[in-house]
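Submission sheet (multi-component)
Chains listed below:
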Amino acid sequence: MQIALFIIFGLLAVAGALNLLFQRHPINSALSLVVVMMSLAVLYWSLGAEFLAAAQVIVYAGAIMVLFIFVVMLLNAGEEDRTHGSKIAYIAGIPGAAAIFGLLTYVFLENRKQLGTTQLGGYLSSSVSNISEISHTLFTSLLLPFEVTSILILVAILGAVVLARKEL
Amino acid sequence: MVPIAYYLILAAILFSIGIAAFLIKRNVITIFMSIELMLNAVNLTFVAFSHMWHQVNGQIFVFFVMVVAAAEAAVGLAIIIALFRMRQTLDVDQINLLKN
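Outcome: structure written.
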């Protein structure tokens, strides 16, 4: 059952990513990125990360992509021109991306025995739920980084407000 | 029972598509979206390894990546708006303020 889930949503994620690549209008790209994020949320859930699946839907698909679509509509972005991009991108970039993919795939397939397989549910060593385990770690040993992120968010809000003002 | 390697290969596929989109696309908003795609691919790797080691530390790392991605999106889109006000274009080929 889990392999069926993986195949369906993995293919959906790859199809969404390819659609992002081939669509020329930014709105179409944004909506296909939402498809990728939703299918990744399902994959997180199948890996036993329920909290992250919910956070993925709420934060990524809900907040960040709405921000993107809002900016696309605000700036009235149309279809991009069919220009020939930089030569270096085509000569070095695309083979480089293919080489990274080939290398990673080779390493992962070579070590697939050591990497093991997934089990659906109840994978943590202690028999507590995923969310209580995360919150326990987050609010005890990782409390300082958690508080620092709130300062980061505050700085980002102020920066966004300052940058998007009329007179810059 | 899915091998962890399959999840990692899926993440590698998504990351490579993100790199390709980053290099090919000419619209600055779409380039920004491909960065988000790459971040998502890395997040999938973190969650898969977290599952493999039976620990939640990887998931907490993903949580922090999400926070940083949200902050990055807010600031980056504000920069794009400021840039659009100044140049009236979203094409990265025409944004060459530092060139001359």
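Remark: Chain A touches chain B through 86 residues (CB under 8 Å).
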